[in-house]
Amino acid sequence: VSLEHAKVDLPHSLWAATAEPAVESNPLKSQIDCDVAIVGCGFTGLRAGLALAEAGQTVVLLDSGEPGWGASGRNGGSVNPLLPFHSPEQASRLIGPVFGPRLSRLSLTSADEVFDLIDKFKINCHPVRTGWIRTAHCRSARRLFEAQCRQWIDIGAEIEILEKPELDSMLGSTAFAMGAIIPRGGNIQPLSFARGLAQAAIKAGAQIYSQTRIVDLFREKPEWVVKSSQGMVKAQKVILGTNGYTDNLFPGLAQSVVPVISVQVATKPLADDISAAILPGGQTFSDTRRTIFYGRRDHMGRFLLGSHGTTETSDDHRDFDRIKKEAKRLFPQLSETDWEFQWGGRAAV
Fold this sequence. Notes:
InterPro entries: FAD-dep_OxRdtase (IPR006076), FAD/NAD-bd_sf (IPR036188)
Order of helices and strands: HEHEEHHHEHEHEEHEEEEEHEEEHE
Largest sheet: 8 strands, mixed
CATH class of the largest domain: Alpha Beta
Low-confidence stretches: none
Protein name: FAD dependent oxidoreductase domain-containing protein
Shape: globular
CATH architecture of the largest domain: 2-Layer Sandwich
Number of helices: 10
Domain FAD dependent oxidoreductase: 35-345
CATH topology of the largest domain: D-Amino Acid Oxidase, Chain A, domain 2
GO cellular component, one term: cytoplasm
């Protein structure tokens, strides 16, 4: 089988093993005309395709794997409002006094958007909305952390500061100096969510083609031509939603993003006593370290921890061993726990 025609499979991850069934889709093997062609069937492409199809546009979505194959089906499944690293003031300094505040305000309701979509389209992705706990990993990080929380509160964010006794109780860990809970946050099964969006887009009239690697994109006025090895789409407009898997399809786009590798490990379902002691309220958490750690439990009672990695492959155990070691430091209750899954993927920054 040639590389162009080789099937692109999902990694052996927790999400691939527990997701809802994939939508039926086939490779593109013909020529199609449409209003909008979308390359990449992750959250960005699927959400855009769904909105456009609902607005009456003819939409064709294309993916080299399948809906949710990339970062959208490999992430931690945390639904966190606000910006992940920057305060409102930092956002304004980075992108200016018009777009910085606009982006910060938009991020306040980003989790609402996800959970509203789940409700509207009845997406079965095990949604839990009990909040996101952000932790200051040491005393020296506390001052900056508190200042950032105040900035978010000033523009309307709902945040509750957690002092150490309450934080320890909510986490089931004594490893952090202080924290805050953002109640609008929560978690989902991300691959099931992506597949639910794909199903909703198809019902709205969009067409989805999987296992379709795009090899060329060019302007043939007044249209754009999107070519795969076996088919072609002519469209009035094109959306590229390839995120951390962006290649040289469009000049300069790959150079505009930095692909960052995130790797995760997940336990087997925990015993009842251990499960009750770790994140007993079902929240997600993340810390303030430069090499961030983030964690949660899934709907089957497994514990998941993720962090920055150096390789996507599950054959290289160094990153995964580091994360398992950190999991046991943060949560000594896991000292004798068996680990069932380990996987990685790329996201763009």
